[in-house]
Amino acid sequence: FDCPEICSPFEDVLKGNWACDYIKAIYNKGITTGCSKNPLRYCPQADVTRAQMAAFIVRAVDKAEPPANYCDTGSPFSDIPSSSFFCKYIKRLSELGITTGYSDGTYRPKATVTREQMAAFLVRAVEGEPPANYCGTGSPFPDVPSSSFFCKYIKRLSELAITTGYGDGTYRPKNNVTRAQMAAFLARAFLEME
């Protein structure tokens, strides 16, 4: 009886998993610590939450952890207590101009991240805000109308070769982003992987 080989260091990512190299790369660069410590797991099929997205992006941009006491002076969002584990990442994400949260003053840390939201987070993290009329010449995907608020981010994400969309030519902007997909997006955006 052969044990399947794991994609080190996570016991739930097997060699042969399409995202194995991306997951290993973001772990080695300190962008992820996994979803559980003992045993060390990554949870590749789980959807990414907005809190996790903040941690991934801040670690990738700053190449470091924010100090543990980063929220001692308060939290920028009404639904993020200063005592929250994720407060330091969410506060830093806000300071970097990568998120403004929702119009009601919340961040909604437990909400899942859609592919269109992920595009906005990543493009802002990598190079800032695209011009408002960026999709004036059209959208790269048939399921992303050029009138969509998120079109400019998705178009730029495609131009930066961080996404190619799905095999059928669609982008599926409303789909949730899995942690496996997020590893690929992060590795392409910040580690120059293909």
In N-to-C order, the SSE pattern is HHHHHH
Q: How can the largest sheet be summarized? A: none
Through-space gap between termini? 35 Å
Helix-strand makeup class: mainly alpha
Shape: globular
Task: Pick out the low-confidence regions.
Answer: none
Can you give the mean pLDDT?
A: 95
Residues in helices, as a percent range: 25-40%
Number of helices: 6
- Radius of gyration over C-alpha positions, nearest whole angstrom: 17 Å
Strands, total number: 0
Report the sheet-strand fraction.
Answer: under 5%
Features:
6 helices; 194 residues
Characterise this structure.
The structure is a single chain. The chain is mostly helical and 194 residues long. 34% of the residues lie in helices and 0% in strands. It has helices spanning 20-28, 50-62, 87-95, 115-127, 151-159, 179-190. The chain is globular, with a radius of gyration of 17 Å. The mean pLDDT is 95.
